Every structure is written in C-alpha cells, then in structure tokens.
Amino acid sequence: MPNIIYRKEPAGVHPPLDSPAYGSTVLRHPKQPLLAVPQAATELSAPRFDETLYYPHHDDLTKQCAGEPLGERIIVTGRVLDENGDALPNTLVELWQCNSAGRYHHDVDQHDAPLDPNFKGGGRVLTNEKGEYRYTTIKPGSYPWRNHPNAWRPAHIHFSIFGKSMLQRLITQMYFPGDPLLGYDPIFNTIPSEKARERLISRFDLSVTVPEFALGYRFDIVLRGSEATPAN
Amino acid sequence: MMSDSKVGLTSSQTIGPFFKYGLAWQDGEQAFPEGATGTAIEISGTLVDGAGKPISDAMIEFWQADATGNFGGPTQGSCAGFARAYTNPQGGFVLRTRKPGPVAGADGKLQAPHILVCLFSRGMLKHLFTHIYFGDEPANGQDPVLRAAGARAETLIARPAGAGKYAWDMVLQGERETVFLDL
C-alpha cells in the first residue's frame, strides 16, 4: 500500500528564519539546524472544523459592529489549492487586518492613528466544495513600525490556513498591487524568490468587483502538495 | 522536486504581534471537550528567546491523537485533539489535554506517545514544528524521533511535575535550545 508524504518545500519560497533585515528574527530563530525526521501519523493528519467556529458576520468585516467602518469596501476571494492543483474544500481560512487608518484593534498597537469604533478586523470561513473562500472587508491602511528609521508596512491582510495535514499549515500576508511600499518592506523582501513574492500580491479583478458596492481582489493560496511513495 | 509542483507554493510570512482578536479561540488551551476519555493532563511551560527573555506574543498550536491513538473530528467550536494557546506576558503557556495514545510511525512501528507543536510569533517568518514526549513513558527509548535527537532529546521531553502535570519549556537559542523538526 502506498504511503502519502508531503514534498519538501522548494528553496527560495519561504523566508529564511534568520533574516537580519527584519530585526526581530535575530533572537527568535533556532541556531541549530532543524532535525530531519520522517513524516508520520500525527503531522500527516490535521484538525477538521465545522461552522460552529463561526461568529456573527464572520465573513463580512464591515458588519461586525453597530455602524459601518470607514474605508474603501473590498471583496477578497480566492481558492485554496495544493501544489498538485487540487482544491482543498472545507478548509479553515482565518484573516485579520488593521483598519483603514492603519491601526489594529489590539491594545498593544500604539500607532497614533484613530481606532474605528465600527471595525474589529477578524474573520473566519471554511472553503466551499471548490476550495473557494470570500470575504467582504475594507482596504487596510499602511502603518509605521520600528524596524528601522522611517519603516512602513505596505497594506496587508494576514491569512491563517489549515489543510488536510498539519504539514500544510500556513500563516501568510496578502498584499495589494501597485503598493509603493512593497520595495521597502523587509518582511515581504525576506522571500528570496521574486516569483514567490509576486504570488503574495493579490490581483485586482473587475469580475469580483460588485458594481456600486466594492472593489474585488483575488488571492489564491497554495499549500504543500503530497505524493504517494511505495511502502518500505 | 520543484518541477513536480503544478502550482507555485504560497510563501510564509510572520504572524506579527496583533493577531489575538483575529485568531481568538474559545477555550483554546483545551484540546478535548469535557468528559473525553483518557487521562487528563496539563502541560505548562515558558517560551524564551535567544537572550533568555520571555516571548509574550506567541501563538502555540497543539495537535495529537486521542487516548486510543485515533485522530479526532469537529467538536463544538473546535476539533478533538487540537488546541491553540497564547503566551502570557511572562512567556508562559499551558495545554490541558488527554495523554495521547501511541500512533504508527513512518515504518509502521508504534511511536512513543507525543504531541505535535506548531509555534508562531512575531520575529518568526515561518512557524516551527516540534514534538512533546512524556518523561514517564517507557516507549521513549525506542522512539525514532527521540533517537535522532540524540543528546538534545531531553528538550523534547515533558517532565512529570505532580499528579497529571508536566513541565516543558521551549528555548529558541542557546545551550538548552529546543530541537525543532524538519518535516
């Protein structure tokens, strides 16, 4: 009987854990090499979830408070796939982001930009049978951070995705096309491969845009692919 | 290997410091619903950085088999065997769970009972994987992961700390650096 294993991730796609341009990595990466061990039952499986995880307006971040948030309303949609091109249905896709002024609804965020009483900024959906997810939200703002003098993060939305195996687990950030800050951002630019960096930039898509309501962006997410290997 | 992929993999990026409201999880530190079978245990510890300072803004996920060695499915608002904890201002974390049963390894032989750990934090551009084993478990001696870890295997082993309690710390750098896994 064949075993399923997940392919090693190609070089250049993920940022090195030791990426000194992003200063916080210096004390937060292991110095010893990761220990290569065989993939086995625990990591080859993954938690499965259902709609009991949802909360009111879990997929519409513009409706989670009493009023409407300020900012440019957008739709963000895409598919969750694996490297083989197979869709991943019923997969949990969580997201979180700052408001349109560049401030997170989080007590540690002290950026001198206004909080929006009508925006929290967290969402949670399961992909449909085609592996698709869809959120309504507002475009997040850019904000300064203290990595280096005059450092600003490009506008981004954080994504957290499960898969069929914990080996597919991924947390990433989605960026916006044409953002002038992308070239200056150490977090984005820790990714060695230019093609891989481009894949983190969502595409504006007129067919996703809802007339007289919201602009549409498409962002597909590709998780590790598996292959069958002969049993020992 | 790269040519085997039909579609380009999505890169990892850091979880950052501001995730808590987006990734909030009801009773996240509990891996099983009340009344689940098996021995109730609590594993607690501290996460420290390369300067020995506590990391107060990490998220730690745990995934494990149940007491019978099977992997669970959806429960009300979570999944049996899954937990999501956040470190506190002192870098502390806790997992309330059931002692996992043994599961098959890659060679089909049973592995020592263990819990998969997935660590995310600001300053980490990709999550780290490790395993927790149990100091009072006789099967540890034959476990392939512990054997591969050699002299550093003790960083993977939770120490018994009273009835149903275990202590297990994560250290990112230095002499007691935890073994993280390339899976």
Mean pLDDT of chain B: 95
CATH topology of chain A: Protocatechuate 3,4-Dioxygenase, subunit A
Proportion of β residues of chain A?
A: 25-35%
Helix content of chain A: under 10%
Question: What is the residue-mean pLDDT of chain A, rounded to a whole number?
Answer: 96
By secondary-structure content and strand pairing, the structural class of chain B works out as: mainly beta
Largest sheet of chain B: 9 strands, mixed
Q: In DSSP terms, counting alpha (H) and pi (I) runs of 4 or more, how many helices of chain A? A: 3
**What's the CATH superfamily of chain A, by name?**
Aromatic compound dioxygenase
* Main CATH class of chain A: Mainly Beta
Please count the beta strands of chain A (DSSP E, at least 2 residues each). 14
| Proportion of residues in helical segments of chain B | under 10%
Domain count of chain A? 1
Q: Largest chain interface and its two residue counts?
A: A-B, 88 and 81 residues
Number of distinct beta strands of chain B: 12
Give the distance, in angstroms, between the N- and C-terminal Cα atoms of chain A: 9 Å
Taken from the alpha-carbon principal axes, the silhouette of chain A is: globular
What is the rounded distance between the termini of chain B? 15 Å
Provide the number of structural domains of chain B: 1
